[in-house]
Write a structure and sequence with these properties.
alpha/beta; globular
């Protein structure tokens, strides 16, 4: 029997990513309903979907809640879900979970059976092809990943973690360049501003480079094209094709994408596929992006924006007792 899912929120993210991903897996997921601040109807892929007021939400019989609401509303909606009884319900919450000044409300995530984060940028199909090439020692030990106009804020921190697991130990921002060092080894460099239509990704290893940018000596990384559509991704000699369902989710490249097309030209479609793959994993009983990693992403991004530097320690991170107390104080100061 399909598991039952409740979607909270009805904005662009829900209409263009969440519902298409769910509808691509109807054999696994049954949409129990969509709830938001006001009653209305939305159209997704030619299908009309009713949106009910969130005050009418009932969690009876719900297996998974997907929460995609405005950032200031997150604490109140989490409180409502806790009051409704969430001990038998899993939560897939959108990024950034809680903005830094609201992290004093992290305890409101405690009532759920499981909490995961919908950081679909870590599940981009292009990254699977790159990871397979790197694991095959095509460029030697991976040392650095460079995102040229290809990453944004906490998403960029998460995308780096796809290749260098573990928390971020330190970071710095100088001009439009952000440099991060991860516990899992290696360095991630992010060049702002984000512009997926012209963004490029570069993987630098001990023995070579893999990139969709301009480097005649590098292994090539990019989309597999069939006419105007993307059917998969190649990385060196590795080619990974999308399934027919994933090709439907992919859609076209950005209209203003710069030729030759890089992988980020298909970012919107890749994110839909990444979210669908997360949902498939959840249905199979596997966890997806961890809450502690998403919190780490937000903390690092906040410090780089505010102070231009970050170093993980017991004062800067809410995972530690002192850091947790400081973020609660910040939440009170913010009046939240």
């Amino acid at each position: 029997m399909p598991a039952r899912v409740a979607v909270l929120g009805s904005g662009k993210r829900v209409q263009q990513a969440v519902l298409p991903a769910l509808f691509s897996q109807r054999e696994s997921w049954e949409l129990a309903g969509v709830w938001a601040r006001t009653e209305k109807r939305i159209s997704v892929g030619g299908e009309e979907v009713a949106v009910a007021p969130i005050e009418t939400l009932d969690l009876a019989g719900i297996d998974l809640v997907i929460m995609t609401v405005a950032k200031p509303a997150v604490p109140a909606v989490l409180a409502l879900l806790g009051e409704l009884g969430a001990k038998d319900v899993d939560l897939l919450i959108d990024t950034p979970v809680l903005v830094y000044k609201l992290m004093g409300h992290l305890e409101r995530l405690a009532p759920f059976r499981n909490v995961w984060v919908a950081e679909d940028t870590t599940r981009l199909p292009a990254f699977d092809a790159a990871a397979e090439a790197i694991e095959s020692a095509a460029i030697g030990q991976l040392q650095r990943v460079v995102f040229e106009h290809a990453a944004w804020a906490y998403h960029g921190v998460a995308m780096g973690r796809r290749f260098f697991p573990g928390p971020v130990l330190s970071g710095r921002r100088k001009g439009t360049r952000r440099t991060l060092r991860y516990e899992g080894g290696g360095e991630v460099v992010i060049h702002d501003p984000r512009d997926y239509s012209r963004g490029r990704v570069r993987f630098e290893g001990a023995d070579g480079v893999l990139t969709d940018g301009e480097d005649p000596d590098a292994l090539r990384f990019g989309p597999v094209l069939d006419g105007a559509g993307c059917t998969g991704f190649h990385a060196g000699t590795i080619v990974q094709q999308l399934s027919p369902t994933e090709r439907e989710l992919m859609g076209p490249a950005y209209e203003d994408a710069v030729a030759p097309l890089g992988v980020m030209a298909f970012m919107e479609g890749m994110k839909r596929i990444g979210l669908a793959r997360m949902l498939a994993d959840i249905q199979r009983g596997h966890g997806v992006y961890a809450l502690r990693d998403a919190i780490d992403d937000t903390v690092v991004d906040y410090h780089l924006d505010r102070f231009r530097r970050y170093r993980r320690n017991r004062f800067t991170h809410p995972e530690f007792g002192m850091g947790r107390r400081l973020t609660r104080v910040l939440t009170r100061i913010a009046g939240e």
